[in-house]
Design a protein that fits this description.
34% of the residues lie in helices and 17% in strands. By secondary structure, it is of the alpha/beta class. The strands form 3 sheets. Strands 1, 2, 3, 4, 5, 6, 7 and 8 form an 8-stranded mixed β-sheet that branches.
Length: 567
């Protein structure tokens, strides 16, 4: 990294920088762009011979790194056609095995660092290679680019940002202004950089330090910057797929126009007239469209409501404002749930654990308006063998299952507040998953430790738990909100504790959990489980009768069992 401003200097008045962003690719336009920025970022740090180790024998610059492929690259100019003046890279967890910080520390020490800080590999992004031409430094371009990379990481779901920082010219102090802190015991001399280098760590939850407002603004602008610089699809090649994003960007008409001008919007869906007609019928069922209130027209119509931009699909969708959108969307519940009940359900926060929860419970909850905020725990990437039970296509292969579920939910309701714990539930992440409170927990995983540990937390916090085992038509309900001393899993496994399950072999897990059907199930089972969980959740969250127990709905004959049963 290169010093950009004196750490103690006031923030200068900055011009409006023109910044483009793109994902590095091995071929096509993405590779051409990558070659150009490699030359820029290699030339500036050489600094007229100040770092001769960066020069090759042929006079070129040693800046070819595999870490560039799949990373975000930001390039800044004073005007769209002007020369590039600055650059920064943001690497995602997909390339975490190649992070410079990992190479700097070594695999073992890097893993120890993440564990000590309470992060998983999927939580951490890496920023680096920040370089700025001399004449642009006094205008604060380095500050702007640094804030943009951090803001982009925040938008993409990072829990932390890590990087190496030089110390000779105060680069470490520069990064401290953004909430970074040096990691003790990591400072050492690097001959190639001719200075001491230290690992710096930034926690997303702590904000952006002195430049928090700038980081937040650029976080919100990142999707538009990324869309404007995206590699277009062509018959001979494709842009890099987006495997990270699950949050749609909600914007006004002016921002929607900017997205359209960028050329990256693949589809525009504007059915606001039909939605307004449905809104009239929802408010006044006996009223025909022509008898309803006057509708916005022309420019007013275009500015009415919200435009939702889905970066992973390139779709731009015009929808009603939040409250009106949800009023119309739940209109089918008329007579079954009254409006106050619908609002109560939207006010709830629900945690969902497990790969089957996406096509089952979580997606069903989104369809039915059960919950307005969600925490989803990841469970690995979507693979070819998952196509028989999870709702996704071939183009989704490799996307984290929780991210995939979050995308499907956001495509149903762009106003949902969804957090994703891509590292899944582990001893390092479980406390964070429950932080902030949950009104209900849905558990549909096949890991014994997670099943027990999640229930231990839920019981301590008074959170009810529902679980579906659709292969047997089984629904589990545990009302820890009413029964704080209730045995976990109805006592079927005795007084088992999560700490005892961490070291079990696969064979021991099977033996210990032989009576619980926690295997993955095909799509019909997932749909049945989702319906079961949704019905139980609705009853619990609205205060309707729903006792603890095990409930069966199964076509197979069972001794002493007819229809359904509560144990």
């Amino acid at each position: 990294m290169t010093l950009l401003e004196h750490p103690g200097a006031p923030v200068p008045e900055t011009p409006d920088w023109h910044v483009t962003a793109f994902l590095g690719a091995r071929s096509g336009e993405g590779r051409a762009r990558l070659d150009a920025v490699r030359a820029l970022r290699a030339r500036i740090p050489v600094d007229h011979g100040r770092r001769p180790a960066r020069l090759r024998e042929d006079g070129g610059h040693a800046e070819d790194q595999d870490l560039d492929f799949g990373a975000w690259h930001f390039l800044a100019r004073r005007s769209p056609g002007g020369p590039p003046l600055g650059y920064i890279r943001l690497s995602t967890p997909d390339t975490g095995a190649l992070f410079r910080t990992r190479g700097f520390l070594g695999d073992e020490r890097y893993e120890e660092l993440l564990a000590t800080e309470g992060f998983g590999a999927a939580d951490v992004f890496e920023h680096g290679r920040l370089v700025v031409e001399h004449q642009a430094r006094r205008f604060g371009l380095g500050l702007h680019l640094n804030a943009l990379a951090i803001g982009a990481a925040h938008h993409l779901g990072a829990r932390a940002v890590i990087g190496t920082s030089g110390t000779k010219d105060g680069q470490d102090r520069f990064h401290e202004r953004f909430g970074f802190r040096p990691v003790p015991g990591t400072r050492r001399y690097v001959p190639q950089d001719t200075e001491d280098v230290v690992i710096m760590l930034h926690r997303t939850a702590d904000g952006g330090g002195r430049h928090h407002d700038l980081v937040t603004r650029l976080r919100d602008e990142f999707p538009f910057i990324a869309a404007a610089g995206a590699t277009p699809l062509t018959p001979s090649g494709t842009g890099a797929p987006d495997r990270e994003t699950w949050r749609p960007v909600l914007c006004a008409a002016a921002d929607a126009d900017a997205l359209l001008a960028s050329g990256t919007v693949r589809e525009v869906h504007d059915t606001i007239d039909d939605q307004l007609a449905e809104l009239v019928r929802s408010r006044e069922p006996a009223c025909h469209d022509e008898e309803g209130p006057e509708k916005p027209a022309g420019a007013q119509r275009r500015e009415y409501g919200t435009w939702a931009w889905y970066p992973w699909s390139g779709r731009l969708v015009h929808v009603l404002p939040r409250e009106e959108f949800r009023l119309v969307r739940t209109d089918g519940d008329r007579g079954r749930i009254e409006r106050p009940g619908e609002r109560r359900l939207f006010d709830k926060k629900i945690g969902v654990i497990g790969p089957s929860a996406g096509p089952g419970a979580a997606l069903t909850f989104a369809l039915e308006g059960i919950g307005g905020a969600f925490k989803l725990a990841g469970s690995g990437g979507f693979g070819l063998s998952d196509l028989g039970r999870l709702r996704g296509g071939l183009h989704d292969l490799g996307v984290d299952k929780a991210v995939l579920s979050a995308r499907r939910m956001a495509e149903i309701d762009p106003y949902l507040d969804i957090e994703v714990e891509r590292a899944g539930l582990t001893p390092e992440t479980i406390e964070r998953f429950f932080a902030g409170g949950l009104d209900l927990l849905v558990e549909e995983c096949d890991t014994p430790w997670v099943k027990i540990a999640a229930r231990e937390y839920a019981r301590d916090l008074g959170i009810p738990v529902v679980t579906a085992c659709p292969g047997r038509g089984l629904l589990d309900v545990e009302r820890f909100d009413r029964e704080p001393d209730r045995p976990l899993l109805h006592g079927l496994l005795g007084d088992v504790k999560s700490v005892d399950l961490l070291e079990l072999t696969p064979q021991e897990r099977t033996a210990a959990f032989g009576g619980l059907d926690s295997r993955p199930h095909p799509a019909p089972g997932g749909a049945l489980g989702g319906a079961w969980c949704a019905e139980a959740a609705r009853r619990i969250l609205l205060g309707r009768p729903c006792e603890s127990g095990r409930f069966h709905t199964d076509l197979e004959p069972r001794p002493h069992l007819s229809g359904s049963h509560r144990g």
